[in-house]
Amino acid sequence: MRALHGAVHRGESAGRILLVEHDPVYTAGRATPAAELGPDIVATDRGGKITYHGPGQLVVYPVLRLPRHDVRDWLRRLEAFGVAIAAAFGLPATASVDGTGVFVGDRKFASIGVAVKHWINLHGIALNVAMDLAPFQAVRPCGLSPDVMTDLSTAAGRPITIAAAKAAARDAVSVLAAAGDPL
Question: Which of 46, 53, 113, 149 is close enough to 22 for a disulfide, judged by CB 3.0 to 4.6 Å?
């Protein structure tokens, strides 16, 4: 991700959108209080607090120049991207009020944490697709009760695969750019 960011910054690449399924790991963003950091938590330079990444979760890293020099606009686009992915599975979703995720009803299935350097995005949006939600119980994901977390499969009441989520992400990528904006 960092090497790609450097290539985008130097003008050697237009960037890419990385689709990743991580091995189990807890990560802490810049807003995590020091008292919540522990030896099994990896500190990162993204925004936000502690969250869990693991099998059954699709993490989307758009390493791209922002279409506009406006981080709030970029967060809204990531939220719209998450809403579009939920819609691909027949789920009505809404963005959080603080730009940190996407919900189906009152349950959160997508978490957002970014770092923007030279108007190029790092990190992105983690979409819970079909995962064991128990690891969220060990932390307060994004500062919330772990009980708020869900995945698309649970929300839809049927299995959704990572492959299907990747296809939906590819179909929704245009949401990250407004009409006439470069992506």
Answer: 53
76 part of the active site = no
Residue type, 61: Y
Q: What is the DSSP letter of 63?
A: E
Residue 46: name the closest of 134, 111, 135, 140 by CA. 111
Average pLDDT in the chain: 93
Report the C-alpha gap between 53 and 46 in whole angstroms: 14
Q: Helix or strand or coil: residue 20? A: strand
Q: Exactly one of 142, 149, 155, 169 is catalytic; name it.
A: 142
Sequence-distant (6+) residues with CB within 8 A of 61 are: 1, 17, 18, 19, 20, 122, 123, 124
- Going through 2-49 in order, the beta strands assigned E by DSSP cover 15-20, 25-28, 41-43
Q: Give pLDDT, residue 71.
A: 94
Q: Alpha carbon of 50 to those of 45, 71, 113, 117, 145: distances in Å? A: 12, 21, 10, 21, 12
CA distance 130 to 141: 17
Checking if the pLDDT of 180 tops 50, the result is no
Domains of the chain: 2-175 (3.30.930.10)
